[in-house]
Amino acid sequence: MAIENKISLDNGVETNYHRIIKVEVDVLEKKVKTTFAHYFSEEKRNEEKEIEKTVTDLSSVREELDKLVLEPTEENKDRRQELSDIINNAPQTSEKKNLFVYISIEEFDFKPEMLDIFYSLLDGEKV
Questions:
Q1: In this structure, are 56 and 92 located in the same domain?
Q2: Are residues 86 and 114 located together in one domain of the fold?
Q3: Which range marks the domain in which residue 67 is found?
Q4: What is the pLDDT of residue 127?
């Protein structure tokens, strides 16, 4: 879930775009712990998503190529070459990169009226 709000961090850096990374609810203790990632802008988050997608796409290309290399045939030769070219020409992004500026963890008491907020988080709404 994305939150667009200008926040000045303790070090003076201003962030404008935030997302919830994790929500932990401790029913027995009646506590909620929420982890946020803070970004300079929505564009930085979108850039991070593109990197994630590229890494995922390249992983599936590598998996397919690995299978074909284990059983090379004349019929799959062109596909092996095509997949090799995709990997060789891809940007050198071998692992996920996070572009957030800061991570914060907020803890607060759980109240029954907060259930609506949690349900909206599950729906992925932007507030």
A1: yes
A2: no
A3: 42-99
A4: 45
Query: 29, 24, 30, 26: which is closest to 112 by C-alpha?
Result: 30
Residue-wise burial string across 83-104, b where 16 or more C-beta atoms lie within 10 A, e elsewhere: beeeeeeeeeeeeeeebbbeee
- The pTM (predicted TM-score) of the whole model is 0.59
At 27, list the tokens. 């029913």
Say if CB 99 and CB 50 are below 8 A apart.
Answer: no
pLDDT value at 97 more than 90: no
Instruction: At 37, give phi and psi (nearest 5°).
Output: -110, 130
**% of the chain with per-residue pLDDT over 90:** 29
pLDDT digits 0-9 by tens, 102-117: 888 889 888 777 777 7
Separation of alpha carbons 86 and 12, rounded Å: 42
Q: Are the CB atoms for 32 and 105 separated by under 8 Å? A: no
State the Cα–Cα distance between residues 44 and 111, nearest whole angstrom.
33
Are 92 and 49 in a shared domain?
A: yes
CA–chain centroid gap for 79, Å, is 30
